[in-house]
């Protein structure tokens, strides 16, 4: 009687188990990427082979010169032009072509008939990031896998890919939420250390941050499709916002425009912000636990893979495991991340720090 045995061409063989499961783990990791809030909000540029740094050039604004002369219709000169431009909560006034919207010495100005204007220096700021590598390793014994190999490998693989996904989001938010400018402290406080347990977030805090984004460098940070900025917040912070009953708060408007959101207990969009819930938002240890709420525009930061998340599975004996007493299930990822701007007048990331109701 002819019997078709398991082989490399049909049904797989013990030597192919590792390759098959590596493909399985890697595919699941990639499918998780859309659920990583920070990964989906950054400008992504993966590193080509042979390079050791991800570079994001950001072109400077061409300034408008202030306090310049204007030749009137009858040839009599007059002076026009403002003294400063308000953006991101500070008055911007500069005398050099540094990417600010106005200048006292150079930029767009009156042309004297027949005379070319003085050329200005223009360029770009370069933001770059080196690589950071992360990995995890799980080892399971041969006795554990002997009678339940599929369940053990499947569950261990799932937990490995979940851990790698969380690590990607952790690495990105560590950089994004590390800026010293564009920070709002709830309760009217001026530092993280002065925040107390009652200083929870309000809609006024969020509105102030969105206003900063819209006015940044007198040009505004580009919002996402639909005209809203992304507000990444922990569920506890969203709970505080939903429970606030002050005039102008979310509940004040939602009861008329989004009653289904109240029933579902979800905050989606309100007053220029699109709320993205992230239970993996990392908090700060301070006088009280402090939770960041991050407001991001279309190009607030950049990131990319040096090495995309990849799985490593070893199920065969080697020099370190000669009796094949265990199988090794692991994964690794290398990535870089950088904020694009972090100056008082040119804010592209706003972070609201607040206490929260646990």
Q: What does it look like?
A:
The protein has 358 residues and is of the alpha+beta class. It folds into two domains: 269 residues, Alpha-Beta Complex (phage-related protein like fold); 62 residues, no CATH class. The chain is 25% helix and 28% strand. The protein is built from eight helices and 20 strands. The strands form seven sheets. The chain has a six-stranded mixed β-sheet with strand order 11-20-15-12-14-13. A hairpin with a 2-residue loop joins strand 18 and strand 19. The chain is flat and about 90 Å long. The N and C termini lie far apart (69 Å). 32% of the residues are buried. The N terminus is likely disordered.
Topology:
Elements (H helix, E strand, L loop, with lengths): L16 H16 L4 H5 L1 E2 L9 E6 L4 E2 L2 E4 L5 E4 L4 E3 L2 E3 L9 E2 L20 E6 L2 E10 H5 L2 H28 L6 E3 L17 H13 L13 E5 L1 H9 L6 H8 L1 H6 L4 E2 L2 E5 L13 E6 L4 E14 L11 E14 L2 E2 L2 E2 L1 E6 L4
Parallel strand pairs: 1-16, 3-8, 11-20, 12-14
Antiparallel strand pairs: 2-9, 4-5, 6-7, 10-17, 12-15, 13-14, 15-20, 16-17, 18-19
Helix pairs in contact: 1-4
Number of DSSP helices?
Answer: 8
Tell me the strand order in the biggest sheet. 11-20-15-12-14-13
Low-confidence stretches: 3-17, 74-78
Note the gap between the termini. Answer: 69 Å
Helical residue percent band: 25-40%
Mean pLDDT: 78
Beta strand %? 25-35%
Number of strands: 20
